């Protein structure tokens, strides 16, 4: 969605079209339009023990909000795993099929 902004300056009116980030919505239900900040929600998943090295999450995490833990130890993105969209790919040391995994992220 794009928002049209008009500003009056000493040299006359100026307008610009601005794309709203995902976290902001435009509420037009009242007398005047209102910008609202969407409150992110947290997702916490426990992944079943597996030999998998890739998982697809049910939602795409917000930027820099993902925590991935193996057996209670938080892993480091870019060293232990990569995140591309909604897909986590392990890149670090091998893991055991009995390891427990927890994923926490904002959507």
What does this molecule look like?
By secondary structure, this protein is an all-beta fold. The protein folds into 2 domains: 2-37, no CATH class; 42-106, no CATH class. It is 0% helix and 50% strand. The strands form 4 sheets. It has a 4-stranded antiparallel β-sheet with strand order 5-11-7-8, with no helix packed on it. The protein has a 3-stranded antiparallel β-sheet with strand order 6-10-9, with no helix packed on it. It is elongated. The two termini are 19 Å apart.
Distance between the termini: 19 Å
Based on secondary structure, the structural category is mainly beta
Count of helical stretches: 0
- Dominant shape: elongated
The whole-number mean of residue pLDDT values reads 88
Describe the secondary structure blueprint for this structure.
Layout: E1 2-9, E2 12-19, E3 24-27, E4 34-37, E5 42-47, E6 54-56, E7 67-70, E8 73-74, E9 81-84, E10 87-90, E11 101-106
Give the key terms.
elongated, 50% strand, 11 strands, mainly beta, 2 domains, 107 residues, three-stranded antiparallel β-sheet, four-stranded antiparallel β-sheet, 0% helix
Short structural description:
The chain is built from no helices and eleven strands. It is an all-beta fold. The protein has two domains: 36 residues, no CATH class; 65 residues, no CATH class.
